[in-house]
Amino acid sequence: MSSVADVIVHRLRDAGTRTIFGMPGGGSNLDLIAAAGRAGLDFVLTATETGAALAAVAQAEISGVPGVCLTTLGPGVASVVNGIACAHLDRAPVLVLTDRHPASAAGFEHQRLDHRALLAPVTKWSATLSGENADAVMHEAIYRATSGQPGPVHIELPSDIAGVGSRESIVGSRDFRTPTPDHRLWMDYRLLASALSRAKHPLLLVGVAARREIDAAAVRRFCASHNVPAMVTYKAKGVVADSDPHFAGVFTNAAIDQEILDQADLYVGVGLDPVELLPRPWTRGQPIINCSPWRVDDRHIPFAAQIIADVPEALQTIADLLSRAEWKLDALGMAVAAQRQRLICESGAQLAPSRVVELAAAASAGARVTVDAGAHMFPATVLWPVAAPNGMLISNGLSTMGFALPAAIGAALLERDQPVVALTGDGGLLICAGELLTAARERLRVVTVVLSDSSLSLIAVKQQQRQHASAGVALGDIAWCALAEGLGVTAHLAANEQQLTEALETAMKHCGPSLIDARVDPSSYGDILHHVRGA
Fold first, then answer.
1. Region 144-151 average pLDDT
2. Which of 282, 380, 443, 452 has the highest CB neighbour count under 10 A?
3. How far is it, in rounded angstroms, from Cα 93 to Cα 60?
4. What is the homologous superfamily of the domain 184-334 according to CATH?
5. How many CB atoms lie within 10 A of CB 143?
6. First vs last Cα of the chain: how many Å apart?
7. What is the rounded distance in angstroms from the CA atom of residue 273 to the CA atom of residue 262?
8. In this structure, how many other beta carbons lie within 10 angstroms of the beta carbon of residue 30?
9. 3 state SS of 270
10. For residues 10 and 99, is the Cβ–Cβ distance under 8 A?
11. For the stretch 397-416, what's the b/e string if a residue is b when 16 or more beta carbons lie within 10 angstroms of its beta carbon?
């Protein structure tokens, strides 16, 4: 008879999951890890529960199948909340498996928290496994995580259940493919047809729900056949490559977007989700429609219509109603190039952040990049060219610090022969510095580039904007190379462009993790923030 832990692992493998991340406790986690070992499913020990969840988020985004993390009860569940919140707001299918006291321990208060209540605001569903329901619950959990608007699901496993025999058979496999959404339209079809037929300069706004390869291919065909440009959100970087003549820049509802947005007479969201945009009022007067596999909240953006369908099918519906657009793509390309140019600053005595991004992108030859929250995010998202969906991973909906390194670990485990670049700042890396040891233990080709300026630079800029004195943002000097080397990571110090170029060349060839301490001058961040987001 198979154990409940064996059932869990069997169904995870059926769904395509390749790795379980986590920090185990002494209960059901141990049975799960043992079952994973028997089934050939990798368990990767991380330094924090949040790091485990963020690595699982990265794998879910790249592969489209559920990412998985596990935690012990009590403090483990409390610690994983930030990572699960990231999965929730970035629409990533993640299963979080938590230990819990057995039913026989109902009177014990030690480490007892209401896990379901704690995770309820950031999960789609929660269930408790038993010997009678394990297979059915796992099937339901995977379906709920991946269907509709994807997101995290919580499964509790009492410590006296995981090792016992399951009452259900796990012979054979189950089909976990997400069903195709019904093709539905929220708007009178005649009004939709009228809006599309009148458009001379329609503009695609491509978002988080259009990142499958099949979606990207459909978007690119649509742009080419109808002469329509596309702006992409942070999460959708690469759906239309930066080098594509139809690429119209990055869309976040920020000041930098406005020049190109002004030229459009109709906006067509493709997988656009308002969770991706800055919390600023929508001031555009042009009509906007959206096509997506799931319906989105329309309180922020007043969508005139929402077509709920697979992206290729929805785009075909729009294509049939739309004439070839009148955009001048050469002029559009010049506008995008001007956007980029405004964010570039030449290095002086110290490295300019924009030059760190440019040099790292040039040296990485198309490698996947993960980007942390912070001031460096602005030049990174604009200047780093991406050619394929999920070529850039970033926490957008939650915008949490400490994302880049755990996400790079998750990504590198899927393609061990390819380097992954993690762009982070001092503050972000301090939050997850222990994951350098995870990268070293797994011998992953993760190149962590720290744009180091000993400060929470984005917050410092915002203090300056409010004319406040600098307070609470100075981190102090950090010997990143010494810290990295102490954890088994090869390290390089770069104080100028030549040193950075040499460090990048060496790190990209290294068959293990590397860290580059890039000492940057933060003085350009204020101007960069102004160009991107305005006053």
1. 95
2. 380
3. 6
4. TPP-binding domain (3.40.50.1220)
5. 18
6. 65
7. 21
8. 17
9. strand
10. no
11. bbbbbbbbbbbbbbbbbeee
With a CB cutoff of 8 Å and minimum separation 6, the contacts of 262 are: none
Check residues 104 and 236 and name the one with the higher pLDDT.
236
State the Cα–Cα distance between residues 441 and 21, nearest whole angstrom.
14
Name the residue ranges covered by the structural domains of the chain: 4-158, 184-334, 343-533
Phi, psi (deg, nearest 5) at residue 41: -95, 125
Predicted pLDDT of residue 26:
84
pLDDT digits over 287-302, tens only? 999 999 999 999 999 9
What is the CATH code of the structural domain delimited by 4-158? 3.40.50.970
Cα torsion angle, 95, 96, 101, 107, sign: negative
Reported confidence tier of residue 535, pLDDT bands at 50, 70, 90:
low
- The reported pLDDT for the residue numbered 180 is 65
Average pLDDT over residues 254-277: 96
Q: How confident is the model at residue 105 (pLDDT cuts 50, 70, 90)?
A: low
Helix axes 49-63 and 404-414, enclosed angle (nearest 10) = 50
Count of C-beta atoms within a 10 Å radius of residue 252: 20
Considering the four listed CATH numbers 3.40.50.970, 3.40.30.110, 3.40.50.880, 3.30.43.10, the one that applies to the domain covering 343-533 is 3.40.50.970
CB 24 within 8 A of CB 5: no
Token pair for residue 49? 């529960």
User: Which amino acid is it at 503?
Assistant: A
Q: Look up tokens 């559009």; give the residue.
A: 332
pLDDT surpassing 80 at residue 507: yes
The C-alpha atoms of residue 405 and residue 33 are separated, in whole angstroms, by 23
| CA 164, chain centre distance (Å) | 36
Helix axes 353-364, 497-509, angle to 10 degrees: 30
Choose among 288, 312, 305: nearest CA to 225.
312
| Residue 522: DSSP 8-state | G
**Do 4-158 and 343-533 agree at the fold level?**
yes
Task: Give the total residue count for the chain.
Answer: 535
Q: Which residues are paired to 306 by β-bridges?
A: 186, 290
Distance of alpha carbon 157 from alpha carbon 149, whole angstroms: 25
Q: What number is the average pLDDT over the span 87-114?
A: 85
State whether residue 72 is helix, strand or coil.
coil
